[in-house]
Queue: 2 jobs
Job 1
Amino acid sequence: MAANSSAADRFSQLAIVIIAGLLAVRIVLALFSPLELYADEAQYWRWGESLEWGYYSKPPMIAWMIHASSALLGDSEWAIRFLAPVFHAIASVFLFLLSRRMFGNLAGLFTTVTYHLMPGIILSSGVISTDGVLFPFWSLALYLFWRLREDDLGWGGTLLLGLAIGAGFLSKYAMLYFAIGVALTSLFDKPTRNTVLSAKGAAFIAMAATVFAPHLIWYAANEFQTVSHTVDNANLGGDLFNLEHFPEFVGDQMGVFGPVCFVALITGLIFLRPKPELADIGDAAHAQGAKERWLACFILPVLIIIAIQAVLSRAHANWAATAYPAASVFIGGFLIRARGWRAAYWAGIGLQAMVGALAITLALGPPSWSAALGRDNDLKRVRGWEDLSQQLARDIERLQPTAILVDEREIWHGLDYYLRDQLDVPLIMWRYNPGPKSYSESIDLADLDSRRVLVASYRSHLRPRIQADFATWSPEGLVGIDLGHRSNGCPLRRELRLYVASDYQPLARNRDWLDQFKIEDGDGNLVDSHIDQPEPCPTR
């Protein structure tokens, strides 16, 4: 008995060492990383410049957190990203505690390793994202909700559960999946149902609603602007039911979970232990099966809904990220009962760790390293912004514009951050549509001084439309940087063509405007020229 206790303690100690060690390594890597901010990170930083109860397309927590880290550490890239590894370390502590409580100390170790070595978590630990901000609150809520189900949570813990759920909703609307999990466990699990229908259940729900209510008030006061953004993101206006996208979705999930973890998860879900009335199983097996089914309620809805989204339209790989926390605990429990999987698990997770280390080395090393393996394209969004911005700054000084107009969202956010201490004129995003479709389009040039506008155009196919919105238009050269090569050998270049324009009088965005700029494709058919077609690889 003493030997078993000693082994259990060692598993817990090893999990703690892993969490603390990876946190330290990731903070050091963030501190010395040469990678610049990508567009979403720059957007969140901009939001954090003012504290609000909501922002254009997201709830406020990520902006609040960046505001806090910037206030303490400055507004450098590493300071903005500093909390990313901290958030994941905190999340993993709660997941370890939950896994240990459900399945034992060894399962807690499996869960810790699984969570931290998922490729999606490795990536998310190096950038600041809404998923990373959400996971500590999600994991805390999952841990406390299980304790409440076990009738092992006092009133203070119950209110903390509600606070965690409310803070999760303030972090990302995907916390809705947690609410679905609560509903499903209440439906299929009697102890959970009794808990949710009790006074403590009413208390944590009321607390969650209270925490989230100010954002809902802000949301209503701002004309529910996130709705249109979400609809655009869902892209349900095109051809529906694209079954060929399902294998791509599965491949994406194998990529973000890691192949061995994803296979273990799906195998465990397929072979969930049945309820005792359906099979003659012992008390221990029944208890494990009940726990696995409970966790499955927080995993399957996410995977099913996002899979349907992938088939109907499209789904980004990280859209199923909210399945990660419960999935890592589930895998820990699965490996306790599926001993034959452990050798394959350790081999697979070791390979994931090596691949992750290689990816980090390529990302943080000189550009020549990633170029040698043809991975320049993977890193183009986090390279070259400072150089491009300083080139443009010299032209801004030379031309003395009253405003700067760009035609690409990523360009807007890159310049907004990397010229943050140099711009004294408005930076505007040109609107293809009558109204804004992103935060970068929030300001309309029509409301500003357009006597001398510096147009920095990235999208060549949009230039005729932009020019048509001005009375005068004159070329002023270009700025640009080389970013390496694509895997097919074609060069990667971020280039801005410069023009000085004046008297902004935008044409009405109507059918005549659309028809005016239609062009012929290779078959002689008229197509809308705003569709971004890849430019041919230059002949060498």
Job 2
Amino acid sequence: MQRRHFLGSAAAALLAGCQPPPPALEFAFAGIDLERGHALRDLLAQGPLPAPTLVRRAQVIIAGGGVAGLAAARSLRLAGVHDFALLELEDTPGGNSRAGAVNGVACPLGAHYLPVPGDHAPEVQDLLEELGLRQRVAGRWQYDERHLCHSPQERLYFEREWQEGLLPVQGVGEATLEQYRRFSQAVGAASRAARFTMPQFAALDAKTGLAPAHQALDAMTFEAWLQQQGLDDAHLRWYLDYCCRDDYGAGMARVSAWAGLHYFASRHGFHAPGEAVAEDREGVLTWPEGNGWLTQQLSAPLKAQGQLQTGTSVLRIAETRRGVEVDAFNHHSGNVERWQAPRCIVALPVFVAARVVQNPPAFLAQAAQRLQWAPWAVTNIHLNAPLADRPGAAPAWDNVIYGDSNPGGLGYVDASHQKLDPRPGPTVLTYYQALGDVADARQQLATQGAEHWGRAALAALAGPHPDVLQHATRVQVTRYGHAMSIPVPGIQTFLSQIGLQAPPGKRKLLLNGERQRALPTPATARLAFAHSDWSGYSVFEEAFTRGHAAGLWQG
């Protein structure tokens, strides 16, 4: 054992031994009402729906208040359409980008960062400019440093010490480093063969959809592709599997090779140790409450104008001769209400949309059959004081544990990392589990108590932080039964054929007086579909852009 290892371990043990008895630990679920969602499922299975007790009207109805639905509302508002209603199942909007608080400390309940968007996502860039996060200075775009992730950004607990970055480097052999370099070259070659973009539809051909090179990658798993390339190093494969679970909810044995390469090629590439990294490619926007900060900004004007209807389960969406009928259950009143409108934006997950849309179009029914979804568990742990730490790299925003003891464990982010106040104090650690590779994960989420998930998270953190139980006071768990679609082989090829054509009669789309690009949108005569599911994977850029596009269609 190295001296610094010994000293670090001894200090941690001493600190743990000198602590007073730990506070009483509380466990609870938060953020998502699983029972409400299941009640919707059960009600739909019972037969004819109850008759509506109230009829309401609007110009546009938005079904679903995740990122796509909120983006659609913004798009309508900017186009001058204000007579709309957004119907959301939960008591707060946000979808996978929700915010919460534990003992007064703000924290994410889901997605926790947004990479600085590239030029393929001008709609997201415009949003950030609108929110004051981005401005042009001396001819160049600059982002508000208060919202960029503070340094150090990430670290890895590997071989009983912390190292900078998430790629295992310290103590690995030359053979491992060589495979890192080979994978970097492979990512570069794939990028040159056909471009990867985010949002992904920016790379689609208007007539053929997915490029032939991407179709070939989409036809196999990422694991099979790595095997073809002779990339079998255990450290490299651990890292790539982690990346897939982080973005897609499942590992490299389930996601396509297209998805595995897209993770790197559409953003910042892959950099082997010693390779130069362009600083402007690595920027990440984050907040103590994660991407919940963004959805709070998007929902604020809707609340102010009375356009947001929360606690409302969409039961039925039907196209009629005169427009659209949307029947919804109001959980606050206990009544079924009918909304009538000329048009509707269906910003629901595909599997929900296929249940509630009457006579669903073929592309919706087929997508519901082919898509697969990953469950997630997000555990927020309130600490009354900073934790003891193992030797190595300093505490970071994103902290990952190599060989995490929990299935799908992805490590934790620290809600206090973005604080401008340097003084240590209480904080919340948000621990993530992507459960797409766990066969009975959905059943476990429905039946296991909050303490089960909380104890598992605490056990994982006890390795790098042996005193975690001494300082943990409250644990809140947010469960997502169908958190995100998994980009399994064949999905991109299938989805790329849906909604390729520009909206008929809307070749000159204007928004706030500015010409807008026509974006591919799955649609019928009166329904436009908007959700990250239509991109085959769940990230903010995809959901927001698809919602924006649907708003242009229906506005």
